[in-house]
Amino acid sequence: MTVPASAAVWASGLRKRYRRQVAVDGVSFTVNRGEVLALLGPNGAGKTTVIKMLLGLVRPDAGEIMLLGRPGSEPGARARVGYLPELFRYQPWLTAAEVLALHVRLAGVAVPDAEQRERLGQVGLADRTDDRVGGFSKGMQQRLGLAVALVARPDLVILDEPTSALDPLGRADVRDLVLSLKERGIAVLLNSHLIGEVERVCDRVVILDKGRVAAAGTLAELLGQSELRLRLDDVGPAAQRRLAAAGQVTREGDAYVVGLPADTKPETVPDLVRDLVELGVRVHAVEPGRITLEERLLDILRTGESDGDRR
Amino acid sequence: MAALTLREAARRRVLRSLALLTVVLLGLSAWGFSRIEAEFGDFTSGESKVVASVILNLVMFGLSLIAALGSAFLAGPTLAGEAESGVALALLARPVPRFAVLLGKWLGLVGFAGGFVAVAGFAQLLIVYATIGYWPPSPFTGLVFLAAQAVALLTLGLLLSAVISPMASGITAVGLFGATWIAGVVGMVGHSLGNESVARVGTVSRVLLPTDGLWHGAMYALQDATIPAQLGPRFDAPPFLSQTGLTTAYVVWAALWTGLALMLAALAFQRRDL
């Protein structure tokens, strides 16, 4: 495989074993510059371990990592990477402004004070800049963590469960933040349980299950499959065959559900209805439906199938 | 990183509680020394020098204990605690090599321990001089050895905290420190009894962990120079007087030991998964 120098993250064959437990088993994926990629999967799927391996916090047993075109083993590769850990804690004896100043110094970039304060304002901590972090609530610490991830002018931002401690308002703020990063061409790697949020902001999804990539692709690729619910009478064998030709057929009560492939043409549904009527079927209702990311995720995890794997 | 560690010490009230402890200890010793002068005014000059040396060393032992405990309990949480709480996650994801973070923490702790020994130790010497007019033969060397003892212990604490949990590392470091001190006393008893194998206990423990050896060096530098001759190899040699000074080889070993422990800590920290 060639190494695309421009990718924000390029990970190949990552493997990690904790004693006898395999946490990550041959995970490969790419985050392109300016792209928002979401890591999804159940608890213990290895999402956080993958993120920690990218950042050099956990040593992979095998595999290669490139961050913004540099080998992940070099600390310098993380110069323009912002990170909000799942376990977010900041020095309780420092003030919010001091935490940001510390991270700016560690990142080795010159960011003026005004810009640092602007970041705190962006996450809703404008009036708490000079308060000690020790007195912050969990939600405020997570907001501070977001500011820390953004403060050193990153080209790649890695957010591990960025909304776990936030109220609905905070979650909306994070969504807007991710969208604004996308607008500015900053790549985002997002790990979140909140599928609704992921669906709204991300370009591509990688679904991990038991340490492996269960499925990966753009939202259109993963969700492109839509379904058609039909309430029909007098369905003869010929009509059954016609339905099966359109897609996979399942019965739900008195309804026929036809799964349509991603590349369904606009005329497919009207053609199907016409053919059914010609075959003597009485058509009561035709309802087009769209599979949500949540349904797709559950489907992939439950059946263990990986036909959505379009890496 | 070093400055950050010092700031942590200051803000975490470690410094304040240490300062309080130190002031209490210094105050008590000042009162004690003035009582010696008042109640035992009829000592011969030789006797009073021995007494002054013993008590000075006793108080200095207290100070070194405070410095050692303080720095060991700062060293523990600084690595292991941050790794456990998650503070280290955001920090180490920055483009800084881990050994640089460790070295920074170490320098901060060394500055803290050194500063404490310098200020508190010098204050103690002044108190002794003001109350009974005793001034040790080589105060600078004594304080340097005292600081070196604290540095050796905090390096051990750092090494342990890179491998095990924060509380355990502090306790283990202090436990080892106490064990070598006792081994040192046992060794001295063995020495005065002429029992080679018992004496070797002290020697071996001093090589394994140089805190007690450095402590003996500090005592030797602070006590009156005529004391070893006065006491001779006696059975009841008190644990707060030292028979001999330190050899250059031992001082080099202690420095090497500290460097080695620091390197091991860096290696362990480098390999650690967070």
TrEMBL record, chain A:
Q: Which residues cross the membrane?
A: none
* CDD domains associated with the record: ABC_DR_subfamily_A
**Xref: Pfam families:** ABC_tran (PF00005)
UniProt key word ATP-binding: yes
Query: Which terms does the record give in the GO molecular function aspect?
Result: ATP binding; ATP hydrolysis activity
Instruction: Report domain ABC transporter positions.
Output: 9-235
InterPro entries xrefs: AAA+_ATPase, ABC_transporter-like_ATP-bd, ABC_transporter-like_CS, P-loop_NTPase
Q: Which UniProt keywords apply?
A: ATP-binding, Nucleotide-binding, Transport
Query: PANTHER family, alphabetically?
Result: ABC TRANSPORTER RELATED, ABC TRANSPORTER, ATP-BINDING PROTEIN
Family of this protein: Belongs to the ABC transporter superfamily.
Question: Which protein is depicted?
Answer: Multidrug ABC transporter ATP-binding protein
Task: Record the organism.
Answer: Actinoplanes cyaneus
